[in-house]
Each structure stands twice: as structure tokens, then as C-alpha cells.
Amino acid sequence: MYTLTHDGDKVGTTKLERGDPTIHAVSGLFDNVGGAKALAGWIKSIGGEEDNGVVFIVLNDAFTLVDHAGNTIKFAEGNLIAVPGEDEAFLDITGLSAEDYHTYFAKHVSAMSDDS
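Predicted structure:
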């Protein structure tokens, strides 16, 4: 389980269950207190945007992703997405280092190897 924080406050958690090792990207369903509607309101309150009922924000330096042990996972880009109408939320992360990708997301790498 991975935790996303904003200015040190916990926003929510994700398993980052999907990934693409070729571009060092991971994504997953995002769980937060209050669900997608509450998350959408919060995202808008900190400068996020809305497009056709999808609310999102590009992650900046105020956001931190940590593993279950509290280790920070560095990334180049990310988006937090809420779809209140569907009661779904997602976290997409790209630009992980090859080392971090293999350390934290070895299952994605092995799954891709199994598909070959």
C-alpha cells in the first residue's frame, strides 16, 4: 500500500496495481476518506481543474508518495484524478527511476516478462 500526502497531510492510499515498466509508470485506484466527491472538492480547492465531470490535479512538490514503511518514492510526474459521477478516483505516476521501479514494482516487471 502506498500513501499520497500533500504538505505532510495524508490524502489517501493506493495499491498502484497497474504498471508499465517500459516507461516506469504505475497507476491504481485511489482510496480516501469521503470518496471521489470529497476528493474532487478538495482537488478543486487547491487549484485542480475539471473537464467533463473529471476533476484532476498535476502533482507538484507539495505531494509526496511513500511506501508502507514511510520511504519516499520519487517520481517525475503524476496526476490525482477524481470522477465523482462514477465514485472513482485514481493516481497515475510516471518517471520513476529504474531502480525504484524494480524495487517497489517488481511484480509489474515480472508480469511483463511473463507476457513475452
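Summary: Residues 60 and 77 are 8 Å apart (CA to CA).
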